[in-house]
Amino acid sequence: MSDPYLPPLREVIARHGLQATKALGQNFLFDEQLLTRIAAIPGNLRDKAVLEIGPGPGGLTRALLRAGARVTAIEMDRRCLPALAELAEAFPGQLTVIEGDALKFDPALLFTEPYAIVANLPYNVGTALFTGWLAGEQWPPQWSSLTLMFQQEVAQRVVAEPGSSSYGRLAVLAQWRSTPKLAMKVHRSAFTPPPKVMSAIIHVVPGVAPAGVSMRKLERLTETAFGQRRKMLRQSLKGLPGALDALAALGIDEQRRAETLSVAEFVSVAREMGRK
Question: I need a surface site. Which of 135, 158, 170, 275 has the fewest CB within 10 A?
Fold first, then answer.
C-alpha cells in the first residue's frame, strides 16, 4: 500500500498556528529527508513498536509511520494534538497519542512487547529521560534500542572515553552494560527556530550486564566521584561508605581522579562495595 499524501510540515504548522516554545525545549525539524534518515537508524521498523517522546507537530512521527512502525507518542503540548490526530487518521491503527509528561510515564506499562525508543528529545528533559531508561536493576531492558537526539555536547558525554574532558557519570552509566555510538550530527540550521548549539543523534543498544553489580551502587558511586571531579578519589569518595575500602581492595590508587578510571574500574569498585 502506498503512503498517504501528507502536506508539507511547514503548512501543517502554519495551519494549526504552532510556534516552538522555549519553555518546552521545542525546536522543529522540517527536512523530511533528514527525518527519514533518522527513522532508519534503528533498522527495520516495519510492524515494530516504537515509543516517541515529544513529537510536536509530528515531523519525526510521520517518518516513523512511513517506515511501518506502530508508534506510541507522548506529547505534553496540547496545541500539537490536532496535527498528530491528522497523522493518526492518515495511518489507521499505527499511531497512539498520549497527552502528558513523559517523565511521569513508565514505558514498561505502555507495552507488552519489546519496543524501540526514537525521539528528538526536548533539550530541557533529555538527560533525565535518558538516565531513567538506563536505570533499573532488571537487564536487559524491555527497550531494544534508543535513538535519541541531544545537544552535541551531551551526545559527546555519552560516548566519551576516560581521560577526556567530556568523560563523566553519563558515559559510565551509558557504557557499563550497553553500547552507545554517535550516529549522526545535525546542524543547528536544520531546526526552526535554530538553537544556539549543534545537535547529534546517539544510538544505544543494550549489552550484557556485568555480574554482581548493583545499578543503584554504581549510580551513587559515579554521582559522588564526579560531583567533585577535580579532587582526588580519596577526597571525593571519603563520604561514601565502603568506597575507599573498595579502592584499596582492588589496588586502585586513591590519588587518582574520577575521570581517569575506566568504565570497567568503576564497575569493579561498585561490585566490591556490594560485597560489604
Answer: 275
